[in-house]
């Protein structure tokens, strides 16, 4: 497969005023040529203003302002749609809180040469979450195992959000069928990618806990993800009618399989 010559990093933000500038600079410091799209959900702390300043200072930084907070999934979908209107041939997902180390960006571009989707994985050999507490580790490992077993997924880290997609795969995944606002969105994306026969590769990363700002994780997001996976699994085996956000691959993907 060909190299990615025009990569884009999609960076969703909500109240990340202290993290945005240093994170963008860390991305720019890597030895890769790429663009950055900051997708800001009208952050009340002024993150959107900082994004505009960065865009004015750097020709390869762009900003998409959204009117209100809708969650991670809709923000990424808006960023993907923006990317597809341009010439980008691969698109990154990346958090803005330094949980995802920008130093891994060149490795992604190597791995994507032989893949449609590359996942920076906490749960393959060499991956880790070095500064997590026991409760968070249990929740994450349990959520991954729950999703993998119920949806019969091969990907080890199906909730992780440090990823790189080829354009062709982004265009084929039925994003309108993944109406999930939180981290369940990542599970849905892997589910459809695997059902489409995409080549998914994982390589190990260290996932660091944020040092500045507040985590967006909440009990509601956890409950939403578990409900979504459970509904999707029931739909997938025909035990439940399709509902918004839980449409089985067997029905949804027919028009995307070509």
Which labels suit this protein?
258 residues, alpha/beta, Spore Coat Polysaccharide Biosynthesis Protein SpsA, Chain A, seven-stranded mixed β-sheet
Instruction: Tell me the name of the CATH homologous superfamily.
Output: Spore Coat Polysaccharide Biosynthesis Protein SpsA, Chain A
The N- and C-terminal alpha carbons lie at a distance of 19 Å
The CATH architecture term is: Alpha-Beta Complex
Helix content: 25-40%
Short description:
The protein has 258 residues and is an alpha/beta fold. Helices cover 39% and strands 14% of the residues.
What would you say this structure looks like, in words?
By secondary structure, the chain is of the alpha/beta class. It has a single domain (7-256), classed as Alpha-Beta Complex (Spore Coat Polysaccharide Biosynthesis Protein SpsA, Chain A). It is built from nine helices and seven strands; from the N terminus they run βαβαβαβαβαβααβαα. It has a seven-stranded mixed β-sheet, sandwiched between helices. The chain is globular, with a radius of gyration of 17 Å. The two termini are 19 Å apart. The model is unreliable at 239-258 (pLDDT under 50).
